[in-house]
Amino acid sequence: MSDSSAHPESGPDTVAATGQLTGILRRIADFGASVEGMFGEGDHPAFIQIDRLDGPVHAVIDGRKTTLFGTNSYLGLNFDPRCIAASEEALRKWGTGSTASRVASGNQNGHVVLERTIADFYGRPDAIVFSTGFMANLGTICGLASQGDLILYDSHSHASIIDACRASGATFKPFRHNDPADLDRLLTEATVPASRILVVMEGLYSVWGDVGAVKDLATVAKRHGALVLVDEAHGMGLYGEGGRGVTEAQGADHLVDVIVGTFSKSVGVIGGFCVTSHPALQPLRFLARAYLYTASLPPAVVASARTAIGIIKTDTALRAELWRKAERFCRSVQALGYQLCAEPGPVGSIRMRGKAQGLDMWRSLLARGIYVNLLIPPATPGGKVLLRFSVSAAHTDEDIDTFLGVLSDLTKVAQIA
Ligand SMILES: Cc1ncc(COP(=O)(O)O)c(C=O)c1O
């Protein structure tokens, strides 16, 4: 970030002389300088601009044809002709935006039908649709827990879960990642009744790409009598016979009180949701400020989300295709000598030795038309530098072979595996 774009409102004098800044402006300017310094000269991982998209995973970046291995479009549904047609029709009939909250004039037929669709998909009577996955966690967790309650959350949880814990007013503590014994310890030591404890975890953790120990953790939580919430943001569409996520795949549905998810990954649009079977939780939408005080989803997004969920529910071949490609890719990466953070799956990370190697590798891949995500501390658990990839059903076998070929060439040149 350049000085002139950091704080336009701070005026030319202060911008020109950042050394004279104090207080909030000083802190933000120092932070900006440290972000800039983190990556040195060359392409900056946070500022890559996609100039054109030719489908879900093919792009033009800086004039170069690039295959995207860093999207969350696991099933390629953001370019599915049926989803696009549904969006186009809704756009013409309903206009570009809802222009109001669900509780004002933003509650359109499409939103209500989408809630029915997602509730039916999860086989639960109640669903609330939010405007993003982040807001689904914020609204649901803050709606459920408040002062005097305790939230126990997996230490690898997404920022939206942690921010929700902070905003809820409840006491919150992390348990060791995927560790039922540690959760058991915290539940045993808790000084509030178990009925006032909310246990939060994810189905699939997208930084390492490892599956949550949902069944084991939820079993412990239920033994104590706590409520269980699982975020299936990345698991939805990937795991389970019905595509509902890791909770379904592990046969843990009956142990989970609330499932939260997003439409921004396999569903291919934007938006979030929570589903539950508890009649007592029906008033949640009136407690969820991230639902009440924001505009509802645009109609075109609602229409394609509904269509995409229908496809996820019925098109098991698409899911099988994704897994075939993901497993082939991961096994081949391992065969080249690289270490993955988790079992092969559609999202995962290759361990790098440090920031210099990670940045070098990331830039070398990009220069050869392969886009992945570079993750560095503090955004990574365990302080590791990682190259995160995601495989999509929309990748061709040739795309995967090209990535593997480039990785192999880079390995030979730099001996970096
Ligand atoms: C586990 C988890 N929850 C919630 C979110 C937020 O979802 P969205 O990007 O749709 O707001 C993400 C996004 O990466 C996520 O990984």
UniProtKB/TrEMBL annotation:
Gene3D superfamilies named among the record's database cross-references: Aspartate Aminotransferase, domain 1, Type I PLP-dependent aspartate aminotransferase-like (Major domain)
Protein's UniProt keywords contain Transferase: yes
Pfam families: Aminotran_1_2
Organism domain of life: Bacteria
Keyword Transferase: yes
PROSITE patterns documented for this protein: AA_TRANSFER_CLASS_2 (PS00599)
Family: Belongs to the class-II pyridoxal-phosphate-dependent aminotransferase family.
Protein name per Swiss-Prot or TrEMBL: 8-amino-7-oxononanoate synthase
Species this chain originates from: Phreatobacter oligotrophus
